[in-house]
């Protein structure tokens, strides 16, 4: 095998964010851009000679090009085998499972998640380690340092692999196995959930609609929901992955799934609505007349997980990202199990999951998952919900209301200001940080007294590492919270995220409109941070 060492020059912008390196496709199309980043990753790893690398992506534009490049470079760098999903496809949770199941050294997940795809859209590369989860900062930081000085990369002169043909091929001397992207994952789901109970639910006439958003979950949802569980054909909508996601925005939220939301609010609409994002790790859950916020969904899934066979002996603990509401904390408290608050980004759950300290994790950004893989998992959340509905024989709305009547309700909303001038956004957060020491003890209005105000710093209880400056939190004595941070996943300018939360006790008022319930906090956050005033925006770009 002739290894070629190709000269290159560094790019200055290859710093991975919350979840890998996400850039416009046009940025990735620059000469050697993919190669530089992949070589920098490989240079930051050790001991993979002869080992297995998993490669797969969400099928977006440029996946095919990047995968062929990655296969040749993996061969040149000394990997012994590549496992790649047929057509280059693997959902992010399926990639995580394939890495674990086949004891691979690691994997490359090619996706920009919920960001739009196509020639004018986004592309991304993320490296996952052998536990199936996103690489920790130690590795992503090393890769970034390497991108700044990289001067050569290694590849081989070999033809493209036929990605549509399942079976064994070679790239140079390296073995390439093209695998069914769905099979391993579907088998795993069958071990976790009561498929018979869910089958009986569908057989009894329960109606569901699932929007795969023209993205990666389509083949998984067709195979599991329709073929295995007997949901009627047509339950899965937009089920064929398209390189540009049908020009849609594959983010399962109330903006991009508004049609489904409207349908779910009609009297003769389906009983259950769900959706997943570009790479299949996020989820949206809507019952008849009831949208379930991701924060509530985490709490509800944790409280009811024991109803599914995979979790019947209970859960060890729960983890949530810092901006996620504290609804799950009340469940952990009642169950007497560990509760962890981590920075935004699934990678921070990895150590806790590996150490067996938590079983279920979730984020306000529509991610929930468990120790079955090391990524969040959209379809997993949907199946756990279906399992719970099937066993409890109650609708989503009834289950949610009973939960609030037991634990109380955490009203919750997130206001995003997208594509804000990065300098203005940075200054705004800095100025709020500067106010923090003066806030504890202060009263605002009648009922809001600041209990604490800080910039979240995480101490990983497993490996002792720390991550500072993870977002400003202002907590109030009644359990309310204001959180402000800069998104780490945007590709243009800066995105400011304002998270607001208010707790209403078990015997309190649970039927207020969310934005109305949070109005005093919305007003106070503008008074403290001045987002509208300083950005000139009248309203948030997205409210979730
Ligand atoms: C991705 C990550 C999540 C994160 C979300 C929002 O989906 O996998 O872990 O919560 O992005 O991150 P951001 O930095 O944009 O708020
Ligand atoms: Zn995603």
Automatic annotation (TrEMBL):
Reactions mediated catalytically: alpha-D-glucose 1-phosphate = alpha-D-glucose 6-phosphate
Cofactor entry: Mg(2+)
GO biological process, one term: carbohydrate metabolic process
GO molecular function, one term: magnesium ion binding
Gene3D superfamilies per the UniProt record, alphabetical: Alpha-D-Glucose-1,6-Bisphosphate, subunit A, domain 3, Alpha-D-phosphohexomutase, C-terminal domain
Keywords: Isomerase, Magnesium, Metal-binding, Phosphoprotein
EC number of the protein: 5.4.2.2
Alpha-D-phosphohexomutase alpha/beta/alpha domain ranges (all copies): 14-152, 184-286, 295-407
GO cellular component: cytosol
Family label: Belongs to the phosphohexose mutase family.
Protein name (database record): phosphoglucomutase (alpha-D-glucose-1,6-bisphosphate-dependent)
Organism: Devosia litorisediminis
């Amino acid at each position: 095998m002739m290894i070629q060492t190709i000269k290159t020059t560094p790019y200055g912008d290859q710093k991975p964010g919350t979840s890998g390196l996400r850039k416009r496709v046009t940025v990735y199309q620059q000469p050697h851009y993919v190669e530089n980043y992949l070589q920098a990753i490989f240079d930051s790893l050790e001991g993979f000679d002869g080992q297995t690398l998993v490669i797969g992506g969400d099928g977006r534009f440029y996946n095919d090009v990047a995968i062929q490049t990655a296969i040749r470079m993996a061969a040149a760098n000394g990997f012994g085998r590549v496992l790649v999903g047929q057509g280059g496809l693997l959902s992010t949770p399926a990639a995580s499972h394939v890495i674990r199941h086949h004891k691979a050294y690691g994997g490359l997940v090619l996706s920009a998640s919920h960001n739009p795809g196509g020639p004018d859209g986004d592309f991304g590369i993320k490296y996952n380690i052998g536990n199936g989860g996103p690489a920790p900062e130690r590795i992503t930081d090393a890769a970034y340092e390497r991108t700044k000085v990289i001067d050569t990369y290694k590849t081989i002169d070999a033809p493209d692999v036929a990605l549509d043909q399942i079976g064994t091929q070679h790239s140079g001397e390296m073995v390439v196995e093209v695998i069914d992207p769905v099979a391993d994952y579907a088998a795993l789901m069958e071990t976790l959930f009561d498929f018979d109970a869910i089958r009986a639910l569908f057989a009894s006439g329960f109606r569901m609609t699932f929007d795969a958003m023209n993205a990666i979950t389509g083949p998984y949802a067709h195979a599991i929901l329709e073929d295995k569980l007997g949901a009627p054909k047509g339950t899965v909508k937009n089920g064929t992955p398209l390189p540009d996601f049908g020009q849609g925005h594959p983010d399962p939220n109330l903006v991009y799934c508004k049609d489904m939301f409207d349908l779910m609010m009609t009297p003769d609409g389906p009983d259950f609505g769900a959706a997943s994002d570009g790479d299949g790790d996020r989820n949206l859950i809507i019952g008849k007349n009831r949208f379930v916020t991701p924060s509530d969904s985490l709490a509800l899934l944790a409280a009811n997980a024991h109803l599914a066979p995979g979790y019947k002996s209970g859960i060890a603990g729960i983890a949530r990202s810092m901006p996620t509401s504290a609804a799950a904390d009340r469940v952990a408290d009642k169950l007497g199990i560990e509760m962890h608050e981590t920075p935004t980004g699934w990678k921070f759950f990895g150590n806790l999951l590996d150490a067996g300290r938590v079983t279920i994790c979730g984020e306000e950004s529509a991610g929930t998952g468990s120790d079955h893989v090391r990524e969040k998992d959209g379809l997993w959340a949907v199946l756990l919900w279906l399992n719970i509905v099937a066993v409890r024989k109650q609708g989503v709305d009834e289950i949610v209301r009973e939960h609030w009547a037991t634990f109380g309700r955490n009203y919750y909303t997130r206001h995003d200001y997208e594509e804000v001038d990065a300098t203005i956004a940075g200054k705004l957060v800095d100025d709020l940080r500067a106010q923090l020491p003066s806030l504890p003890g202060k009263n605002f209005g009648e009922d809001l007294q600041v209990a604490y105000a800080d910039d979240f710093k995480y101490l990983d209880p497993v490996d002792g590492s720390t991550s500072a400056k993870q977002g400003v939190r202002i907590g109030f004595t009644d359990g309310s919270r204001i959180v402000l941070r800069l998104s780490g996943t945007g590709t243009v300018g800066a995105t400011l995220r304002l998270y607001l939360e208010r707790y209403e006790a078990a015997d309190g008022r649970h039927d207020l409109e969310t934005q109305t319930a949070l109005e005093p906090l919305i007003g106070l956050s503008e008074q403290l941070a001045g987002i509208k005033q300083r950005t000139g925006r009248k309203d948030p770009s997205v409210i979730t």
